[in-house]
Amino acid sequence: MQEVIPGIFQLSRWWDQADLGSNVYLIDAGGELALVDAGFKGKELLIVERVRDLGYSASRIASIIITHHHTDHTGGLAGLLEITGARVIAHAADAAYIDGRLPQPGPSRPRWLSRAARPFQHLLATRPVKVDIEVADGDELPLAGGIRILHAPGHTPGSICILLRRNGVVFTGDLLAQRFGLKWPSIPFTVDVEQLRRSVKKLAGHEFESACFGHGSPIKVDAGRRIRRFAGLSSSARE
Ligand SMILES: [Zn+2]
Ligand SMILES: [Zn+2]
């Protein structure tokens, strides 16, 4: 675990988010607590234990914001709701996967992998959970000190980035990853690669200092400039 900036904690081990499936973050904005993403199925008790290790009661978690519907980000959601009673916030375009109206899709490409994975798709199934607040691009929510939703489709139709403007932090979900430099997310599990590229450019148009990723370690300073460079929007193309 690490405190990325004051009040924002990465609950997964800082060198390896794989122990929770995806990164899971805790936001303490002084009042109610919020989580970003919920990790894999079966990780909920470990998540709660780490929240307690930080000195917080899990019952203070009032919101769980889901960056996108993939099971490494939503598998622990049903269990976490039983413990916390939190409300679930996700983009409308991913809500049907989270609440079970649509099955979890397998990999989109290459075609052979997508075909080969089909018989095993049920293994991805998670307990369906109702999305309490379906959000859209530009929505501002008065939680965690004030967040702004940025719709960033491509990886999934309803992928979002979450901007905490007061702290200059963005949670990118799987729009980007960060392991020894910025990386694209898993391409086999990305629905529309061109749309993903457009969404990275869209994010790069916003101001922020720190970035927290769905996979990998955070960038604490100068994240906006580095993402602009990654997106090819500044003179130095190397990243
Ligand atoms: Zn992921
Ligand atoms: Zn994903």
Number of helices: 7
Task: Give the percentage of residues in beta strands.
Answer: 15-25%
CATH H-level superfamily title: Ribonuclease Z/Hydroxyacylglutathione hydrolase-like
- Stretches where pLDDT falls below 50 for ≥5 residues? none
Q: For the report, how would you describe the main beta sheet?
A: 7 strands, mixed
The CATH topology annotation reads as Metallo-beta-lactamase, Chain A
Strand order of the largest sheet: 1-2-3-4-5-6-7
Structure description:
The protein is α/β, with parallel strands linked by helices and 239 residues long. It has a single domain, classed as Ribonuclease Z/Hydroxyacylglutathione hydrolase-like (Metallo-beta-lactamase, Chain A). The protein is 23% helix and 22% strand. The chain contains 7 helices and 14 strands. It has helices at 44-53, 71-74, 77-84, 92-98, 111-117, 193-204, 223-230; strands spanning 2-5, 8-10, 25-28, 33-36, 61-65, 87-91, 133-135, 140-141, 147-151, 160-164, 169-173, 177-178, 182-183, 210-213. Strands 1-2-3-4-5-6-7 form a 7-stranded mixed beta sheet. The chain has a 5-stranded mixed beta sheet with strand order 8-9-10-11-14, with no helix packed on it. Helix 1 (44-53) crosses helix 3 (77-84). The chain is globular, with a radius of gyration of 17 Å. It starts with a strand and ends in a 9-residue tail after the last helix. The structure holds zinc ion (2 copies). One zinc ion (ZN) binds at residues 68, 70, 155, 174, 185, 189.
